Structure formats: C-alpha cells, structure tokens
Amino acid sequence: MIKTLEWTDSGVRFIDQTKLPMEESYVTCKTHEQVADVIRTMVVRGAPAIGVAAAMGIALGVKNSKASSVGELKRELDDICTLIGNTRPTAVNLFWAIRRMRDKFETLRVRPLPQIKQALIDEAKRMHAEDIAANQAMGQFGAALMPANGGVLTHCNAGALATCGYGTALGVIRAAVEKGKKIHVYADETRPFLQGSRLTAWELMKDGIPTTVISDNMAGALMKLGKIDAIVVGADRIAANGDVANKIGTYTVAVLAKEHGIPFYVAAPFSTIDLETPDGSKIPIEQRNAAEVTHIAGKPIAPEGVGVENPAFDVTPAKYVAAIVTERGIIRAPYEESLRSLAEQALVSAEKS
User: Fold this and answer.
1) Strands 313-316 and 244-247
2) 21 upstream amide cis, omega within 30 of 0
3) Best CA proximity match to 156, nearest among 227, 224, 230, 248
4) Torsion over CA of 140, 194, 272 and 52, rounded to 10 degrees?
5) pLDDT tens digit string along 243-254?
6) Looking at the annotation, which residues are catalytic?
7) What are phi and psi of 231, to 5 degrees?
8) 208 three-state secondary structure
9) How far apart are CA 280 and CA 310, in angstroms?
10) 155-178: buried (b, 16+ CB within 10 Å) or exposed (e) per residue?
11) What is the DSSP letter of 200?
C-alpha cells in the first residue's frame, strides 16, 4: 500500500506528490511549521490526507513544545492550530482534525505534560488508522454501484495519495476490481495541477488497473460515444444540502453526466460532511498561484502578464449527484434529510462507544 504519510520517530514522513510520477521521493517534517508548509505547497493533498496531516502536525508541535505548564502548552497549541488552519481553506477535514485534536487536549488537561503529549500523538495515529479503515469500508459499499464491465471516469485524484491509503473514489474502483468487475478507468488530466495524469494514472498503473488519461475537455465527447458508464469523484467538503466542493472541473463533468444520463457518484468519508455549511454557496473556495496555470514544470505556456483565474475547487449542486458513498453506507436524495440522519446515527454510535 502507498504510504502517503506516516508518523515516524524522526518526524512526519510524506511522499512528495509534487515530484510524482517522475520521481518517488519522501519528505520528513520535524516541526509543525514544516507540516504546515507541505500542506500549503501540496506536497500532501486530498482532503482526508490533509486532515490527518494536520493532526500529525499538531501532535508534532506539542511533542516539540518546551512548555512547563498545561496553560502554557494550551497557548502553544492554539498558535499551532491557527498556523495549520490557515494553510488551505476549502477541505473541511482540515478543520475537523484540528477540532478533534483540540477536544482531545481538553479531556487531558488534568494529566501530566508527558501523558498529554503522548495521548495527542496516539490520537493522530488513531486518525490515520481510522482513515484507512473508512476507505476500505467505503470501497465495499461503492463497489456495488460500479458497472460489471465498462468505463468509469474520475476527476482529480481521490486515491491512496489523497488519503492515508486505499482511497475514496479510487477505493471504490479498487474494491470493484477486487470483486471481479472489469473496469477501465478514464482519468481526466485535471488541469492545472494535473492530479489525474500525474497521480491517478500512477496509482492505478501500480495496481494493474486499465487506465486511459484524457484531457479535461475530452470527457463530454467520450460520454457521447458511450465509453463512460459511471463517474466517481472525491470531495473536499459536502454541505448540509448535498452540494459538493471538489477539484475545479468537477462541476463541468457532473453537468455533462446529467445530459448523457450517466450516474455521477461522490465518495467521501463522514468527516467531509459539513452540516454547519447550509449549501455550496457558503463553501470558501481556495484561490491558488497564477503560475500553476501559466507554467508547467516551471516553463511558461502563456504570455507573461496575462490575467489568470485559478480557483482550486468548484461546487457541484446536489441535484447532479446520484449518490454519496461514505464508510457508513450509501446516501441518496433528499440529502438534507439523509445527511442529517447519518450525523445523528454517528452521534448515537459515538455515545455508545
């Protein structure tokens, strides 16, 4: 299994996704500031992976703290969480992880400092293990939605590289293949950061899953030709009404799918659901550096000084989503009711445990 990130005695180790597929190299962060930087620069990316990276960054910062009292450690924790929270605004898993680590700290305040530090490290490791288990459960549910024999389109990378292992959308595809389904994946290249052509293709080829990379503007033509039987993507945030924020270009794919009568599925862990955000219009959309559009591998492909728009994400309205796959099951419209019900079930389950 691809080790996207892991806790080690030397620090938090990440596969450098900016170097793939040409070079498989790793970065070890020894401070929480370095973890914040790898999140910001997309050395690590994908909402679930970002969430666990944030938790490990917080744990690393607390581990390195020289605080002599719980109160002093709390002030440092606040600063660490603020720094990491300012890295990427759209992926709600980031803020979910920060909140979970803060909540864990509050339950530990009466303990000695070494115990608090170790407990926060253990919590971050637990989140890593939970993510892998959630992806595998999601795959089992979602595999039933995939065609027995046909083409599946995916946009961006929602695989092991976007998570702690296995993947969300690609986890669904992996599980379907493991069950014997004959799937050919069409991977949008996903401009401008090319997560599809660089990362999704790399992952699936390692697994021996037939994969064809297409430019983003080919998707509609392939749908018209009957080559696409289903679409599955990941998500960075799902609003209370079922609107989905995902990599820029997802909305276009969803509209085309609707026109061609092709089911459009979203696979995401429960932590990606944000019931505090009523609809997609309230989801903050990250704006990234213009050079990602005007340059490829450091080389200019557009006239110097030209105007550039570079939103990292767009929002797909719930009406285009056939189903949302989570580790707790498959959810369908009306999403306001089904998402709320899922959250209530999760709360009951947490209280019992």
Assistant:
1) antiparallel
2) yes
3) 248
4) 90
5) 999 999 999 999
6) 236
7) -130, 135
8) coil
9) 18
10) bbbbbbbbbbbbbbbbbbbbbbbe
11) I
Tell me the C-alpha distance between 156 and 33, whole Å.
27
User: What is the residue whose two structure tokens read 């995902």?
Assistant: 246
Strands 295-296 and 299-300: antiparallel
3-state secondary structure of 181: coil
Q: Which residues contact 111 (CB under 8 A, 6 or more apart)?
A: 119
Which residue ranges form the domains of the chain, and what is each CATH number? 5-136 (1.20.120.420), 144-352 (3.40.50.10470)
Query: Alpha carbon of 57 to those of 20, 171, 262, 265: distances in Å?
Result: 23, 25, 40, 32
Burial class of residue 337, CB neighbours in 10 A (0-12, 13-18, 19+): exposed
CB 59 within 8 A of CB 104: no
Q: Tell me the CA distances in angstroms from 221 to 105, 227, 230, 260, one per residue in order.
A: 52, 9, 15, 10
What the block records as the tokens of 78 is 């606040």
Rounded to an integer, what distance in angstroms lies between the CA atom of residue 81 and that of residue 97? 10
Other beta carbons within 10 Å of 3: 12
Structure tokens given for 99: 């909140």
Q: What is the pLDDT of residues 243-301, one digit of tens each?
A: 999 999 999 999 999 999 999 999 999 999 999 999 999 999 999 999 999 999 899 99
d(CA 49, CA 16): 13
